[in-house]
Amino acid sequence: MKKLLALLLCVMMLVPMAAMADDGRIHITYSFWGNQTEAEGVQAALDEFNASQNRIFVEPMQIPNEEYTETLVNYAIAGQLPDCGMVNENAVLYFARNGVMADVSDMYVGEALQPMDCITFRDGGTPVGYSSCNEILVLYYNKDMFDAAGIPYPSATEPYTWEEFLEVSRQLTFDKNGKHPGEEGFDPNNIVQYGCFVNNWTWQMEVWALSNGGAWFSEDGTQVLINSPEAIESIQMVADLALVHHVAPLNVIPEDNGVGIGIGSGTVAMTTDGTWRLGTDFPNLDINYGIAPLPVMKEQVTLCTSGLTGVFNGPNQAAAYEFVKWYTREESNWNSLILTGIWMPKSEYYYTTEDGINAWLGNEAYPFKDMEAGRAVLVDYTMNYAKPACWYYTPNTQITTNEILFTALQSVWSGERTAEDVINEIYPELCDAIVID
After folding, report:
1. The pLDDT value given to residue 21
2. What is the DSSP letter of 430?
3. Closest Cα partner for 215 from 422, 89, 410, 387?
4. Fold type of domain 136-304+396-434
5. DSSP code of residue 103
6. Are 295 and 163 in contact (CB under 8 A)?
7. DSSP state, 262?
8. Cβ proximity of 146 and 153 under 8 Å
9. Is residue 298 over pLDDT 50?
10. Alpha helices of 173-290 — where are they, by DSSP H?
11. Is 238 within 8 Å of 247 (Cβ atoms)?
12. 2-134+306-369, CATH topology level
């Protein structure tokens, strides 16, 4: 990655100045990831911007999330880096330190609505960018499966303890003969319905370390803390849902698709995942679902995150800056991304005032119709318990979380090794990777 970025910067120095297209506009490209539903929302926003003025025309560039950062670097080497776009959270600080990102630190100066502090990327305490929106991790559940089992729905205000979550998951898990885990004759090799699926996509695992009283990194982003007993235990507790308790499906090679693997499969009653699923997945799933806070190991917490929409250094920087400033205002994506449930607002106004809250949660177009639960989970939970994911303040998480941990933890998910053995083995490598270049 370092060699690629060095070459990237050399190539960027050779890019010619921006030129007008035949239609008299400056044409710029905006890169993003997401499924077809998200792509339609992005295109709607771009269409609105393109129609609002006659100087700049924005063209979309859709890239799969799993390949996003590597693809951007490869495009840069080929002289085809987009002018602006989303940046995977784990690569923001790395790109910023290597001169790929243009300075947008003053983008919201003088604006009436300011981004929430928890979605501000900081390098040594200095803001270097802002997420496009806010997203948090929540618990989704299938109401019909709870009804069939005669179990009350998870509370929107009082989260399960981990022990309660495990017990309810047992009651919702049964094999082909209707036996539950722990009952005599239960067959773990022929499970018909699982009680839960905790998304083990690597970055989503950090929340459990925090909930268990530990952390992955220090708050200043300079130390690796994932080898603490609390952090190690949290990983093993999630793995044991499948390996020991048999209440969750085995997921050895994680995908960024918790809802799809979980309740979207039709065989799982509860799933942890991000709030973007409200707009990207559930409108296409025939599921009577609800939302609740995440289960609690020791402390109530959720992670907030979202990709940064930034400007890349290049010949169209001024035009890209103008578009990004427009695009990252809530009103510019209100109908296409916020009211569709794909994005949550990023400004505190929409969480701390009645008018702001009602503007999205109370809008008839919003996909989640339970206003009471929505307010408790999407608003109050965000304001009281959301913490920034590690990449907002920790360098090189594209290596520590996406490469080292992703690969190493697969042997934990499969049951071949314990979390303690794996984390202690890779700890020196993680410490080396976090070192500021």
Report:
1. 66
2. H
3. 387
4. D-Maltodextrin-Binding Protein; domain 2 (3.40.190)
5. P
6. no
7. T
8. yes
9. yes
10. 206-211, 229-243, 258-261, 277-280
11. no
12. D-Maltodextrin-Binding Protein; domain 2 (3.40.190)
Determine contact, residues 414/393, Cβ cutoff 8 Å. Answer: no
Q: How confident is the model at residue 180 (pLDDT cuts 50, 70, 90)?
A: very high
pLDDT digits (tens, 9 = 90+) for 150-162: 999 999 999 999 9
Distance CA 352, CA 375 (A): 11
Which residues on neighbouring strands pair with residue 107, listed in sequence order?
none
The whole-number average pLDDT for the span 3-27 is: 58
Instruction: Please write the tens of the pLDDT for every residue from 67-125.
Output: 888 898 888 778 788 999 998 888 888 888 877 888 887 888 888 888 888 888 887 77
Report the phi/psi class of residue 213: left, alpha or beta, with left for phi > 0 and alpha for psi in -120 to 50. Answer: left
| Joined tokens for residue 57 | 């025309």
Q: Which residues contact 38 (CB under 8 A, 6 or more apart)?
A: 32, 279, 280, 342
By mean pLDDT, which of 11-20, 257-266, 290-299, 392-401 is the weakest?
11-20
Please check whether residue 315 is in contact with residue 100, taking contact to mean a CB–CB distance below 8 angstroms: no
DSSP 61: E
Provide the 10 A C-beta neighbour count for residue 13: 7
Confidence (pTM): 0.88
pLDDT at residue 232 in the model: 98
pLDDT tens string 390-419: 999 998 898 999 899 999 999 999 999 999
C-alpha closest to that of 198 among 161, 236, 239: 239
Task: Give the 3-state secondary structure of residue 259.
Answer: helix
Burial letters for 417-435: b for 16+ Cβ neighbours within 10 Å, e otherwise? Answer: bebeebbeebeebbeebbe
Sign of CA dihedral 331, 336, 338, 342: negative
Supply the DSSP string of 279-322, one letter for each residue. Answer: HHTGGGS---EEEEPPPBSSS--EEEE--EEEEBSSTTHHHHHH
DSSP label of 26: E
3-state secondary structure of 393: coil
Residues carrying CATH 3.40.190.10, the chain: 2-134+306-369, 136-304+396-434
Distance (Å, whole) CA 215 – CA 302: 13
Cα 352 to the center of its chain, rounded Å:
23
